[in-house]
Design brief:
The chain is an alpha/beta fold and about 210 residues long. The chain is built from eight helices and nine strands. A hairpin with a 3-residue loop joins strand 5 and strand 6.
């Protein structure tokens, strides 16, 4: 468990790279909570409000932007807006938990700028062909949208140096172990344990 400030783990990558599945693997670890994003897109049939997303109108979203209620926000594929509410950080602090953000690449770059101590993980598909297969299997996108997503993925991958870790999601079991290892290892960083270290030092008399 972290000290007073929660450890923030940012999980990002191209649409269809398997971020959500790997985040679920991370959340199997104790002491982690998911930041519930806000979005203006309509819920899918399998989605319940408040689990992964809070679904809001564009007017509500823009009101939250005006009030400075987001850590980061972005318009994705020129359509829907997504944002990470700042209150997620407050909630993690109160609950003494570390916070997982599953966000798109634009949002991840913003969040990393505002929270330089956050740990950013980039989830990559093993190839363009594999990503295209995954997007097609979801059966949600037109041919034009698929090509747009693939081109967007290429642009997003060019930002890989902005991240602390890269996980190639070609084997779910191995990739799941890797994201868990990154979370556990990040908790052992000196700055995360500084408060506890000072307590231990006091027990030695200084």
């Amino acid at each position: 468990m972290s000290g007073v400030e929660p450890l923030v783990l940012i999980v990002s990558g191209p649409s269809g790279s398997g971020k959500s599945t790997l985040v679920q693997k991370m959340l199997e670890l104790p002491g982690l909570m998911l930041s519930v994003s806000c979005t203006t897109r309509p819920p899918r049939k399998t989605e319940a409000a408040g689990k992964w997303y809070n679904f809001v109108s564009e007017a509500e979203f823009q009101g939250m932007v005006a009030r400075g209620e987001f850590l980061e926000y972005a318009q994705v594929f020129g359509k829907n807006w997504y944002g990470t509410p700042l209150k997620s950080l407050d909630e993690a602090r109160v609950r003494h938990k570390d916070l997982v953000l599953e966000i798109d690449v634009q949002g991840a770059l913003q969040a990393k700028q505002k929270l330089p101590g956050a740990v950013a993980i980039f989830v990559l598909p093993p190839s363009r062909q594999d990503l295209e297969r995954r997007i097609r299997e979801r059966g949600q996108d037109s041919e034009e949208e698929i090509h747009r997503r693939l081109e967007c993925a290429r642009q997003e991958i060019l930002n890989y140096r902005a991240y602390d870790f890269v996980v190639i999601n070609d084997d779910l079991v191995r990739a799941g172990r890797e994201v868990q290892a990154i979370a556990l290892g990040s908790r052992c960083r000196v700055e995360q344990g500084e408060e506890r270290i000072h307590e231990i030092l006091k027990s030695f008399g200084g």
